[in-house]
Amino acid sequence: MASKVFAPGRVALITGGASGVGLACAKLCHQAGMSVVLADRDSDLLQSAVKSFSTRDDSARVVTLSADLAQHNHWNVVRQTIVEEFVSRGTPLTVFFNNAGISGSSDAAQRFSLGDLSKEAASAFDIKGPAAEEDESCTMQNWQQVLDVNFWAQKRGLEIIVPLMLASMTAAGADVRGAIICTGSKQGITCPPGNAAYNVSKAAVKMTTEHAAWELRQVAAEKSHRWSSAAANLSVHLLVPGWTWTGLTKVMAPAGSEKPDGCWSAEQVADYMAPRVEKAEFYIICPDGSVTEQLDNARMAYTVGDITSRRPALSRWHEDYKQTFDDFVAKELDK
Fold this sequence. Notes:
alpha/beta; 7-stranded parallel β-sheet; 11 helices
């Protein structure tokens, strides 16, 4: 391949860039000499984020955009800002961290596929009764919000931003490399019970990102395509953090909690990610302080085995298969 991905004289867009993994990745880009555009719906966090960047000359700028990326028109504002501030001035958009995400409601019933089954059975037969109304106002609302932010925002980002990347990289020349990094989750792979809405959204991100990688390969292979060369230099990655101390995990912890020893920092995720992006690895599955790469691999392999071995769905959490799972993992770890 040509030059490095994280290199001076280029711009990176980071959604969900005001905190957590997004901010850590933005700082990594900025330290490499890149300008960065941080898009986030929390304007207060954006202001704090800007102050945390080390001072550089004007060639590596920090631009912030308060945007709700679940809204299509906000993506158009992001695109237009990048064109006006950078691309029209000869600076290509080469890195896109498609990262914004939420965990959804902390109410367990709103996270389940079947809603709250603890209600009196009689209400299930009353189509116009309180169960149906509550389902519409709570459970479905939570699912819609989670899918809007975690999946549809990422999908819209790919459709609106990637053509701009390809066009600006083509204009910049054959030596320019770029990367699209979409933030997934291990919950979108192994799908542990407890937050079905989040799991579904992250499983959708995984599949969409896989297809984006395939689609770019087709463009690169079509030599007559105007963006063939740029597509060949634009790699796609699924970044899957492990247990990481960010806003998402802090929400689930008791108020005032400190980062647990086994939990990675957002900066550790960014540092783990960068060299693997440079090597064009698609799946970037991060370990953490309590889960090794080998254990992650065993868990993912067992999950796929539910299908090939004809086990019940999510058998890892099925009482009758607890020993089967434990034995499988032990055998994998002994290899």
